[in-house]
Amino acid sequence: MKVYNVSMTDIPDSDLYRLDDLLTPQEKSLKERISSWVGSHFLPQVDLYWNQGTVPGELLRELGGLGALGTSIHGYGCPGLSARGSGVVMQALERGDSGLRTLASVQGSLAMKAIYTFGDESQREALLPPMARGELLGCFGLTEPSAGSNPGGMDTTAVRDGSDWIISGVKKWIGNADIADHAVIWAQSLKHGDPRGIRGFVVDTTLPGFSATLIKNKYSLRCGRTCMIELDSVRVPADCLLPGSEVGLRAPLTCLNLARYGIAWGVMGAAQACFEEALAYTGVRESFDRPLASYQMVQGSLADMATELTKAQLVVSHLANLMEAGSVTSEQISMAKFANVDSAQMIARSARELLGGVGILGDHCSLRHMINLESVATYEGTRDIHRLVLGRYLTGVQAFR
């Protein structure tokens, strides 16, 4: 049995239906620029980041310089890309690692999007330009230890005290929180002890009572900064309230939909990396004096992987059209999120299997992507939650409770 150095230059393009032809020259240039950065700056360090269980916050400044933060926002120093262009950015980043895409998604699709959509003009002007450059870092505090899939059951409270608000509670699984300068915190607003609905606040993380710590001992998404936030009677001024965050969950769920859209695109980057690695490896690895790729079962696996990848690419390609037309629905985004993650998981598992024993080594990416996708399948709504969203649409019956 023989194996040779794997070259990625001689394998076919995984964009089988030529969807990159739909990109504008600006979007193609941006994709190439980010892909080049991922290959030359991020991937050479990915084993170090993986072993350390984190990534340096300085990467956000580099991503800002590339135009990868707040991509869908127009004005305020943001790129103002189309829906397709924003998706391509997420795809290029996740081709490196799901943690890298998460780093950008938390900053742009969640924190910046919340400020842009639900903040006032003074908040936008003060915060968005430096956030787009990666000079000011943000996070998005919605999920809690006892309220994951049911954000409406959150325990964090915001109590009015004169013109200020007093925020108390715990948030968990919050990306970038330990390096954030500002945290978008969602809390149940109270008046005289009675719930008045969920509101959003931009909280300065240097205020007394605010603390954020990295969650240790993760086996997945290790190239990401996943944190616990504790708010111990944090006093914030009235102008920290996001005035457009109407009472209820509409505001945070709007931001989550944009993040889920980015995930549906992003996981295609992980899938591409795994598929192309498997295709290249089976072409040069010999078994019984023949390349693995010459065997029917191997070709069948590669064909299945290419088909799943292409179907998922077509889903997000049309989803981008719906986003641009302003006609996209939550159900469409939910379908794309769970279906594309399913496809990416299948491709990553198949690639790792085709790599055989070397597939468990850090010299190859498929196992790392496969493990990361376990996290991606869980956050921003589990597979079952998104299936229930779709089921509610199809049947008209609410099955969450």
Outline the structure in words.
- This protein is α+β, with helices and mostly antiparallel strands and 401 residues long.
- The protein has three domains: 19-137, Butyryl-Coa Dehydrogenase, subunit A, domain 1; 139-240, Butyryl-CoA Dehydrogenase, subunit A, domain 2, CATH 2.40.110.10; 250-395, Butyryl-CoA Dehydrogenase, subunit A, domain 3, CATH 1.20.140.
- The protein is built from eleven helices and eleven strands.
- The protein has helices at residues 25-42, 46-52, 58-66, 83-94, 98-118, 121-132, 250-284, 296-325, 330-354, 366-376, 383-395; strands at 74-75, 78-79, 138-141, 157-161, 164-175, 182-191, 194-204, 210-214, 226-236, 286-287, 290-291.
- Strands 3, 4, 5, 6, 7, 8 and 9 form a seven-stranded mixed sheet that branches. Strands 1-2 form a two-stranded antiparallel ribbon. It has a two-stranded antiparallel ribbon with strand order 10-11.
- A hairpin with a 2-residue loop joins strand 4 (157-161) and strand 5.
- Helix 4 crosses helix 7 (250-284) and helix 8 (296-325) runs antiparallel to helix 9 (330-354).
- The radius of gyration is 22 Å and the shape is globular.
